[in-house]
Amino acid sequence: MEIDTLRDANFALLDDAVDDWSTLVKSLEGLKKDAEDDLRKSADNADWAGVNAEVSKEFIGKTAGEFADAHTQAKSIHQILSDTVGELKGYHRQLVEAIDGGRKKNLTVIAYEGGFTVTTSAPPEARRAMDQDDKGHITALRDEIQGILDKATESDDSARTVLQALVDQSEMGFSDASYADRDSAAKAIADAEAMARVAKKDPHEVTNTELAALNSALVKYKTDPLFAERFATSVGPKGLLDFWAGIADPYQAAYDPARSKQAKQLQKNLGITIGRATLSDSAAMASWKSKMLGIGENQLGIDDASNPTGFAVMSNLMRFGDYDDRFLNDYGNKLIGYDRKVNGEGVSLWVNNVNQGDLNFWDYKNDRGRDPMTGFLEALGHNPDASTQFFASPDVTSDPDDKNFKVNEHLKYLTQERVWVSDTTLQGDDDYVAGRDALGHALEAATTGFAHDTDVKEIIAAGGGHRTADTAAVMEQVSYLYGSENGPKMLHEQPELADSLGKMAGAYIDDIDYSLSGVGDHMRDQATFPPQYHGRANFTEEGAINFLSVLGQNETSHAAVTAAQHLYTLSAMDAHPPTSEQNIERAHDALMNGAEVRGILDNSRVQQAETTYKGDAEEANKSLGRSSDWVKVGAGAVVAGGIAAIPLPGSTAAALVIAPVAADTAGQVVNTFIGHGVDHAVDDKEQKPAEKAQMTRTEFYGKGAEQLGSAYSAYVNGSKGGAEVANKEKWASDIESAYYGVGSHENEHRGRTPYED
Fold this sequence. Notes:
Blueprint: H1 3-7, H2 12-45, H3 50-104, E1 107-112, E2 115-120, H4 124-133, H5 135-168, H6 182-199, H7 208-220, H8 225-235, H9 237-248, H10 250-253, H11 257-278, H12 283-295, H13 310-317, H14 325-342, H15 372-382, H16 384-390, H17 409-417, H18 434-448, H19 456-461, H20 469-482, H21 487-493, H22 498-507, H23 509-516, H24 541-551, H25 555-575, H26 581-612, H27 617-627, E3 638-640, E4 643-647, E5 656-660, H28 689-692, H29 697-716, H30 720-728, H31 731-742, H32 746-749
Antiparallel strand pairs: 1-2, 3-4, 4-5
Helix pairs in contact: 2-3, 3-5, 5-6, 6-7, 6-8, 7-11, 8-11, 9-13, 13-15, 14-15, 14-16, 15-18, 16-18, 18-20, 18-22, 22-25, 23-24, 24-26, 25-26, 25-27, 26-27, 26-29, 26-31, 29-31
């Protein structure tokens, strides 16, 4: 900064700017509140239909969000300007005081373009001698002034840097980047550049101490947009890939447990930071994303990790983090395009004895990270909107029962055409294919709108389900494929998808019930099974039966769907208490539908167990015994906001079935299933230990009927009128007919037969 610029500065315009931004912040705060309280809430509560439901509601929601972002950005800019103006005023005062102090010592400050000089206030002919005599004071004043100018320059440059970085975050609209002051924003950028210098070093020369410092910084700034963007663009796409490949190289980590521990955390932290960076619209980040896509299929030309391709490295980083939807889709399009060329029945390009480039530290024994499709699909599993787009229906107007029904090419390739190879270590499970498990995670996200491993608290806090017409269109395709004639074979050969398919069906159990509620595809019961979102999934009656009959064959998927169906049926009965004839009729219809679905699932489970364990009745009975244990998950279910989070039956992980319910909160019927209300009639506690895992088909069906009867009993309990109507209309007979006579015999007429090797 020039001395005259600071000395003669007129701060009136800057003060006006700060005042204007202060006023703008207050105005935007009011608009933000109005947009949230009036605009968004009105849109959410409105009964939209047609195009308005798909376009207008979403647009209004985004517009309300823009007001919030505008307020955030304006507040940050105001704070940065206010801090900078305050500092510059302080440096202005210091400069004036320094010059005045020098004048009292007969020193003069003379400015010129590009600098200044300090001399004595003496006539020209005597100045040289006096300057020499007063050299100490001259030097001290010169250094003082230069120090003030340096600080003022730093303040000005820092403000310019952070303001520019802030507005560059969003090409259109506003950024949600929030900073309380200029220094915190400036420090984020400075720390990003410091950490980038570590990442640009030869990875073999990076010490464990430096890795620890890098991990700490990435954790500290994991949500900071300026840090993420500056770090990513400073390191560069090729530099990032070279760095991670070098750090992850198994020959380095194998002999240094401390380094391996740091590397594992670095994989996660880098993924989260880079994901945050991709959300930036800056020109530098746009270039970064384009270059990263260009590197994908090329080998990096390094000695580490078997000289991997860009896809192999980046896919292992993107297992973690929230990524830009367009970037993920562009990346996936290129990856699948290349994978189609190199994947086949012969030796896999990715998984082979030559490739020792283990780039994944998470669940390493079963997933070495050599197949880039796995990491990419895990990324989709954590980015629901991107996943829904990636598996979008090519034709949303066709019905699943149409012989010309079209399936997304990515979905078709990954479920029916791609050759999947196990990528385990010698200590892992050779039969397990991590990529197929990741595909299930991606499809869960695409169909439910939630990340596949979303915490129950986050689900409840979301205030309801995230299903849309687009997620439903993906679900229809999944049901079409796995409910097809080839469905039993697909499920048997892709066991890693069983839990995900069960969770997906559970998430759409209300739409499945609706599809089964009519005669064929006519006269469906919308009053009992109302849509909970616009554009609900259409499975068709035949399609729903086919899909359920396939899922019922597998122990895991059977348990997930059964638990979701039972809870939904109970909630529908709670939603229609026995206080009127109309309510009782709808509760009856919900219970009959639930009984039919349960019959289809249970019959498939019995048939598959007997087919799988031919001649071994004990093993078949054990399988049925395990399939009856789903009821135990009731104690862990949480119901709120129109959804239920149900622990996945049989899972040791914190996996959840996110199922719709008909009532916002748990009522008395649901409470027969949750907590202490679990029906003791179906509890195994009185059985001998040796008998717990064994159950004949008769006992298995008996438990199913008993659970339905328990629901019936809980509904009419305490309601004399309800009990009279139920007895008069012979509900008990209807339940048994729906469960035994329709559901359990459905597969004899429709549905898919058991899988046979």
